[in-house]
Amino acid sequence: MDFPAKVKMIRTKLNMSQEDLARALNVSFATINRWENGKTHPNKLTMQVFISFCEQNGISVKKLF
What we know:
By secondary structure, the chain is mostly helical. The chain has helices spanning 3-13, 18-25, 29-36, 44-56, 61-64. The chain has a single domain (3-64), classed as Orthogonal Bundle (434 Repressor (Amino-terminal Domain)), CATH 1.10.260.40. Pfam families: HTH_3.
């Protein structure tokens, strides 16, 4: 599974919109949209925030990444 699919799967599993996830990660809606469309990937710091967010919400990212 590629990164865009993982982001969408996690967001869907948490029953969040792209806007909800963007707010939770302190990034823009457009950023989440670009991730899910495969146009960009998060930088190292944002990736750490994303991983931490997932783990806090009961999603084991070690299996995903």
